[in-house]
């Protein structure tokens, strides 16, 4: 069960005795109880092959938003379906809009009809639990907590969070990267990359104007931090008395070996995140037209193993960059230099 807030951050909050946040510690402890067991990978069933592009079948989203009404029972009460008017509930309407923005990117840019490539309904549940400090993809739907109000606001407040979690569904239906170790960090990285692209596409931002922040807007003003993660500058997203300092590494020399967090999947994802953002900024222009296409081609190539390493993933991105843009392209050079900058060994595109 991939979650947007990593367990190490919830641990910090749960252990805090800061009098400014009387509710946050208990809320974090409850959120930790909803995490999957440590060291167990996310195993998903085999999915049938799906087309990666449906140019002759323009798609329309099929969105369904439910309200858990503070309980932890899914899916909750259905409150808004596709085409219905806004409800006035900010969480419901933000989730509805965010699902639409995510669908639009995958449809218009990559020709993908929903998460599974075959028109799968996009479902979400809001107001999950009591002051629940997380959002997650459970294999069928997006689930959003409202936050504790002291450290976290509602998790529908960030479009990159919505895009991130839905991208886990795309990964399940394509490369099926195992949620453990380096393949798990790649799973998290892919979701961060497409979460950022969803936000950039919705805002019309090019790679230079983009913030490259994941989860911007989900911290309250009491927190000294910009977001959960920075793709461009891993390790700099927050530096707070309660949360501590963002621990993400930005280079392979600082790769974190740990048994926690499914082998550090939320930590070490900072390394490929930086490679992606650096490549996008070197190319400039709209990132979804360059590195976004390369990464999507990589994800749907059928050439990645479920236990892919950073080096294997990087090699496939180089191959796909050469196939799409050519051997002498700026795109290929930028992707290669991005991986080299973060210490991932690459030897060029492989035929």
From TrEMBL:
Family according to the record: Belongs to the peptidase M4 family.
Cofactor: Zn(2+)
Function in brief: Extracellular zinc metalloprotease.
Pfam families for this protein: Peptidase_M4 (PF01447), Peptidase_M4_C (PF02868)
Annotated Basic and acidic residues bias: 61-88
Keywords assigned: Hydrolase, Metal-binding, Metalloprotease, Protease, Secreted, Zinc
Entry keyword annotation includes Secreted: yes
Subcellular location: Secreted
Residue numbers spanned by region Disordered: 43-94
Gene3D superfamilies: 3.10.170.10, Neutral Protease Domain 2
Record-listed E.C. numbers: 3.4.24.-
Entry keyword annotation includes Mitochondrion: no
Domain of life: Bacteria
Residue intervals of the Peptidase M4 C-terminal domain: 175-344
Catalytic EC class: hydrolase
Source organism per UniProt: Agromyces salentinus
Residue ranges of domain Peptidase M4 in the record: 73-172
Protein's name according to its UniProt entry: Neutral metalloproteinase
């Amino acid at each position: 069960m991939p979650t947007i807030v990593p367990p190490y951050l919830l641990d910090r909050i749960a252990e805090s005795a800061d009098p400014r946040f009387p509710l946050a510690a208990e809320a974090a402890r409850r959120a930790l109880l909803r995490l999957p067991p440590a060291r167990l990978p996310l195993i998903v069933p085999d999915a049938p092959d799906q087309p990666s592009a449906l140019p002759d079948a323009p798609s329309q989203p099929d969105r369904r938003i439910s309200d858990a009404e503070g309980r932890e029972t899914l899916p909750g009460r259905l409150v808004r379906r596709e085409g219905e008017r806004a409800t006035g509930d900010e969480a419901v309407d933000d989730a509805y809009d965010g699902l639409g923005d995510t669908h639009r990117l995958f449809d218009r840019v990559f020709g993908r009809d929903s998460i599974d490539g075959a028109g799968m309904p996009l479902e979400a549940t809001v107001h999950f639990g009591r002051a629940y400090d997380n959002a997650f993809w459970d294999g069928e739907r997006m689930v959003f907590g409202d936050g504790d109000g002291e450290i976290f606001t509602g998790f529908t407040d960030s479009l990159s969070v919505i895009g991130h979690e839905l991208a886990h569904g795309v990964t399940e239906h394509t490369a099926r990267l195992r949620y453990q170790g380096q393949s798990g960090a790649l799973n998290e990285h892919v979701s961060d990359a497409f979460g950022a692209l969803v936000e950039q596409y919705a805002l019309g931002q090019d790679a230079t104007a983009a913030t490259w922040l994941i989860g911007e807007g989900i911290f309250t003003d009491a927190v000294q931090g910009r977001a959960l993660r920075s793709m461009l500058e891993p390790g700099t997203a927050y530096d707070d008395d309660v949360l501590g300092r963002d621990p993400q590494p930005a280079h392979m020399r600082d790769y974190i070996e740990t048994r926690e967090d499914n082998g550090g999947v939320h930590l070490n994802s900072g390394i490929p995140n930086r490679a992606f953002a650096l490549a996008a900024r070197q190319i400039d222009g709209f990132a979804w037209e360059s590195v976004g296409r390369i990464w999507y081609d990589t994800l749907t190539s059928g050439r990645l193993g479920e236990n892919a390493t950073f080096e294997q993933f990087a090699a496939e991105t180089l191959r796909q960059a050469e196939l799409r843009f050519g051997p002498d392209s700026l795109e290929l050079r930028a992707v290669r230099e991005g991986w080299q900058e973060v210490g991932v060994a690459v030897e060029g595109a492989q035929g």
